[in-house]
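Two proteins follow. First one:
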Amino acid sequence: MRQIPVDTSGAMVMLAQAPQIKIANRQTGEIALDRETNAKLMTADVLFVRDGNAELVTVTVPETGVSGELDSGARVSLTGLIARPWENEFNGQKRHGIAFRAVAITQVA
């Protein structure tokens, strides 16, 4: 699968919503796990602001990569951020998008 490194050094990155446990199956409540480390996965909504443009994206981070208390509106740093294009077909409808994944999310002092 393609992985594209994302450079956030020229942008202001702010936490829009604190990390929450990622659910793999909504019907059973199964929690999503990292395939390599078996750590629980979390999702955080972050706001990227660059050149007067803002974009809200959801980033998946392993629970072990979430450092301390993260407050909404705080500036954050995303370590090892990658973008991963995806496509699937469900009930005859094709869907596609970009999934964002980081190794860690930390609040910037």
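Second one, unrelated to the first:
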Amino acid sequence: MRTQKRCMGYVAIVVDDYDRAIEYYTDKLGFVLVEDTPQPGKRWVVVTPNLESDCHLLLARASDEQQQGFIGNQCGGRVFLFLQTDDFWRDYHAMQAKGVRFCEAPRQEEYGLVVVFEDMYGNRWDLYQNAQS
């Protein structure tokens, strides 16, 4: 019997400019540009933390005033995205050196090591490493 694999393929994040967003996510966060395909009136732009990841970030340029209002506040100010790492300190120091804005000092929780940061738009992320890693 064949089993189907289900996973999150893409998470869309509203951005103001494709090229600025690509530069930020690839340079500051170390993501990889997977695809940048022109489409009528827009582009299909996909980045990922690594090429083996099943979940990718779709950089979606705001197309109207309503969408522009959500840039940087897609989740009402709470942590919106979670970037899991196998080496917290490596990624924390690399991101810090690139000027990523951290909202707090790293902290140890029962589930692992975590720190909140904001992307270029103000969306809040957790960088975390599971306690088992």
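SUMMARY FIELD: The chain has a mean pLDDT of 94. The two ends are 33 Å apart (CA to CA).
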